[in-house]
Amino acid sequence: MDLGLKDKKALVTGGSHGIGLAIVQALREEGCKVGSISRREGCDVLRPADINKALKEFSNIDILVNNVGGGGRWGDENPLATETTVWREIYEKNAMVAVRFTINSIPYMLKRGWGRVITIASIYGREGGGRPWFNMAKAAEISFMKTMAMHYKGSGVTFNSVAPGLIAIANTTNEIEGGTPEEVASVVVFLASEKANLVNGACIAVDGGEGRSF
């Protein structure tokens, strides 16, 4: 199946390892010209100046994948024992980074009449079970994609989120059974494709049935 991705320009945040790296590789296999940014590549997405620099370097993109995030293990198991600075930093690292990259990337997409914004959230953005600061940030990402989809419907630009469950990532998890980054990447590639024109505002769970939400 030709997904219509040849020569499309894509930017993946947090693309140096795990799910992000798998997405970079999968998009390249489909013929995309892919840029990747991460701290390892000299970009701290918590610094607005670094975000602006990255967006100047990777301008006029067709596909944005917001993958930077994390922090699900930060803080104490007891919310009352966790400083509010943790809540704020997790929200900033996940939701607000996605907001900044999105609002600075879509003007070109809207002008062109075609584009894809895909945000990697979590099943804990759809249900309880994780630490509350992480749930809050991931729920915000899912809501952000949905409301952007509703606002820009009919523009040719789609906004979707992907909610992975337990994913086994090399050097970060030991002896666990879970999905693979490549399985998440396959869903992202489809959402980025011309075959997914009608998929807009969706949150796709990639969890093998682990999640409890509908």
From TrEMBL:
CDD domains in the record: SDR_c
Q: Which SUPFAM superfamilies match?
A: NAD(P)-binding Rossmann-fold domains
Gene3D superfamilies annotated for this entry?
A: NAD(P)-binding Rossmann-like Domain
PANTHER family from the UniProt entry: 3-OXOACYL-(ACYL-CARRIER-PROTEIN) REDUCTASE (PTHR42879)
Family classification: Belongs to the short-chain dehydrogenases/reductases (SDR) family.
Q: What is this protein called?
A: SDR family oxidoreductase
Q: Which organism is it from?
A: marine sediment metagenome
